[in-house]
């Protein structure tokens, strides 16, 4: 349920409401707007008697049942956008951030080169997989801890925060030592133990939509993270599996405005995986931003033809530079701000 405080309520009245929420076994979530203070009481469906109890408390204007099954992600609980801030800028609330880098960390030279030009062309975050979940057990699985160390070195040199994927609850503490944000890939989007573990890690989370997930299921996965006290979640539309075979996956551009109308969380688009071919990445990226996305996560490699994974969809440096040139123009036309390192 959602408790709306009266205009001019006292801090003691607010504290009493929060204490009462905790005493009945619910979890409070405080949201302060310019004129209104809202307190979400997160838990099982409230009884009419419980709602009346809270309506009678001093300072309470109204008590409203939360209609959505995703409670903490809902705009009913927080009616304004969440804005996440990184050392290089923000995402959400009119701020756009681009994460870029290779699909997999293959070597120190490859990763540092990609990080340098990603920053030079305006990316605000470095992506790269140290642990790679692959369809085939015989495919490149990543460099593991060595890959994490290379990403950390790239961050030291460029100042770009790092996002990398974590595959299991047992890996979370290790990856969190090196990464600024933890990525949950499409294959793990409903690995609930992993979602709870990253929720407890205290780092921002990029949650990718599973290839067969509905948007409601996607938000319920986010709720697993939020329910553990971590409100810094970015939702990433990365393409879903449909009957169409022309592209690797089908980018659900419509998911962006739908999610923006349902949740306060930032929404990003991954144009690389649905494209499957580098020549389609830029159009899909621009389509996602035009639909309202708060950021992009893009694959780029100094020598894509030599890449050990996803070679066909990784942008060359010149192509990434062109993407960022067009992103700047589009973001400006949309009245938004592109977050980028100070020295570009």
CATH fold assignment of the largest domain: TIM Barrel
Largest sheet: 8 strands, parallel, barrel
- Based on secondary structure, the structural category is alpha/beta
C-alpha-based Rg, rounded:
21 Å
Number of helices: 11
Q: What amount of the residues lies in strands?
A: 15-25%
| Tally of discrete structural domains | 2
Given as residue ranges, the uncertain stretches (5+ residues, pLDDT < 50) are: none
Helix and strand string, N-terminal first? EHEEHEEEEHEHEHEHEHEHEHHEHE
Spatial strand order of the main sheet: 7-8-9-10-11-12-13-14
The CATH class designation of the largest domain is Alpha Beta
Portion in helices: 25-40%
Query: Mean pLDDT, rounded to whole units?
Result: 94
Topology (elements, then pairings):
Blueprint lengths: L1 E4 L5 H13 L3 E6 L4 E6 L5 H8 L4 E5 L19 E3 L2 E3 L3 E7 L6 H13 L4 E3 L17 H14 L3 E4 L6 H7 L2 E4 L7 H8 L5 E4 L6 H12 L6 E5 L17 H8 L4 E3 L2 H4 L5 H10 L4 E5 L17 H17 L3 E3 L5
Parallel strand pairs: 7-8, 7-14, 7-15, 8-9, 9-10, 10-11, 11-12, 12-13, 13-14
Antiparallel strand pairs: 1-3, 1-4, 2-3, 5-6
Helix pairs in contact: 3-4, 6-7, 10-11
Enzyme class: transferase
Keywords: Transferase
EC number: 2.5.1.54
How would you describe this structure to a colleague?
- By secondary structure, the protein is of the alpha/beta class.
- The protein folds into 2 domains: 2-64, 2-Layer Sandwich (Alpha-Beta Plaits); 84-339, Aldolase class I (TIM Barrel), CATH 3.20.20.
- It contains 11 helices and 15 strands.
- An 8-stranded parallel barrel has the order 7-8-9-10-11-12-13-14, surrounded by 7 helices. Strands 2-3-1-4 form a 4-stranded antiparallel beta sheet. It has a two-stranded antiparallel ribbon with strand order 5-6.
- Helix 3 runs parallel beside helix 4, helix 6 packs across helix 7 and helix 10 packs parallel to helix 11.
- The protein is elongated.
